[in-house]
Design a protein that fits this description.
Length: about 240
């Protein structure tokens, strides 16, 4: 598996299912991979999805054998696996790619450069496809794990011009993807207006996630300009979720 970035850019609609290894034990992966396939087929048909991905990562990843977890998932699925890391410790050569995140909505140097420097040492000779990603945390109506761990405040969704400027700056800095994140279980997903305004300003693929629980919300997000939509909590709570 290679050229994930190219695949995302060329596809009209990409859908990623976010899995947190802290919430799923290794011995449950096989059953999950089998049970989620009918859901993926339903989503593919109803939303006209071109490409599916698994995003794998969590905020702390304590007491998780991340390498073993990734290997087990890879053995049980044909869907590309992309690491969505909470820190430089969440790396595995057995994934297909990794979002190299820059938390540009915050001003904590630990997540602007320090974690990236630590990861760079491990990625020098990697076979992973590295996807530089400008990561913007938006206020989704509740405190998120990202907010707590990074000790940064999310951007206010009412300040659309500020969000657009952050996204455009991320592109100018060389990022190849922009990720608008309302946070896991957000009560207020990223608004379609924000997605529309950001997508108008940038010319790189836009990823949107956090709090999307209905087909209507996902469809609206795609129509507003997202190249990839990420769902997590909805499937985590109901493996047969179909919006």
């Amino acid at each position: 598996m290679n050229n994930i970035l190219k695949r995302i850019a060329l596809a009209n609609r990409n859908l990623a299912i976010l899995i947190d290894p802290e919430k799923m034990k290794v011995d449950a992966i096989s059953a999950f991979a089998k049970a989620v396939m009918p859901t993926i087929s339903t989503l593919e048909n109803q939303l006209q999805i071109d490409q599916f991905y698994f995003l794998v990562g969590g905020s702390t990843m304590e007491n998780v054998d991340f390498e073993k977890w990734i290997i087990t998932l890879k053995e049980n699925t044909h869907i590309p696996i992309v690491i969505f890391p909470g820190s430089s410790k969440q790396l595995s050569e057995d994934a297909h790619g990794i979002l190299f995140l820059n938390l540009l909505s915050g001003r904590n140097p630990e997540y602007l450069v320090e974690q990236q420097l630590q990861a760079a040492q491990k990625l020098k000779n990697t076979s992973l496809e590295v996807l530089p990603t400008g990561y913007l945390l938006l206020d989704g109506g509740k405190e998120t794990a990202v907010q707590r761990i990074s000790r940064t405040k999310p951007l206010n969704q009412n300040q659309i011009s500020t969000i657009v400027n952050h996204a455009y700056a991320a592109q100018l800095m060389g990022n190849r993807l922009i990720y608008l994140e309302a946070g896991s279980g957000a009560t207020h997903p990223v608004s379609a207006e924000i997605v529309h305004e950001v997508s108008k300003q940038i010319n790189i693929p836009l990823i949107v996630g956090g709090g999307l629980r209905t087909m209507h919300q996902i469809e609206e997000t795609f129509n507003a300009g997202a190249k990839m939509v990420v769902i997590g909590t909805a499937i985590e709570e109901d493996i047969s979720w179909n919006g």
